[in-house]
Amino acid sequence: MNSIGEACTDMKREYNRCFNHWFAEKFLKGDGSGDPCTDLFKRYQQCVQKAIKEKEIPIEGLEFRGHGKDKPENSS
Amino acid sequence: MVKYFLGQSVLRSSWDQVFAAFWQRYPNPYSKHVLTEDIVHREVTPDQKLLSRRLLTKANRMPRWTERLFRASVAHSVYILEDSVVDPQNQTMTTFTWSINHARLMVVEERCVYCVNSDSNSWTEIRREAWVSSSLFGVSRAVQEFGLARFKSNVTKTMKGFEYILAKLQGETPSKTLVETAKEAEEKAKETALAATEKAKDLAKKAATKQQQQQQQFV
Lengths: 76, 219
What we know:
By secondary structure, chain A is an all-alpha fold.
């Protein structure tokens, strides 16, 4: 799957390979320490954040919403 | 006005397989509209949860009839953010996904909770909620309100006009009162129409502001 930055796709692939292995073999089994992918992640992020700025994608400063708590239950 | 959706799905795979697959979903034969995918933030919290933010761009497929109305939107892809929390200790995952552009046209938000299926613990269930909103609904309400107010003021003018001409035809010089009444009615009609236009503008503005606020709530 392509990255938004054409130059970043290979770095993304490398990072994902590392992450997917660590995620399934370590993290999900309770061992969340020692993420071996930090360097690959840094490289990938440098590239992709640059692409995001160049394309002026407005994701700066948006608060994390992953806990899913800012929408009330069963609201219409 | 917000359209609400609630649904539940089951995947016949264990929670750890589903959570691992979540990161490897794209591309697949059903995701041709997904153009790019990137992780733009990731961290492991002190309590061993994985927080991630994924940025997706999707082709903006809209029906032909919308293209003339929303010319600006047609050109640009939709940018979507997906924030997630993976909690391996509790075997749950929560995701919150929302579109961040074309907001004036439509905003779609989705919250999913993934957990072990209550019937079979080798399956995974997904509880999915979505909210679809558009500030255009506010605009169409405003147009309706304005139309109705203008119609009402025209009815007043019609009736006053009738009374006036009937009085004239029946040989009564329209009394000063009647002429004045007609003038008053015209003034009142103008005021009503003006008030209605202001109200309509306000409604449309409120609807647009609410959209923006929903997006920037925590900034």
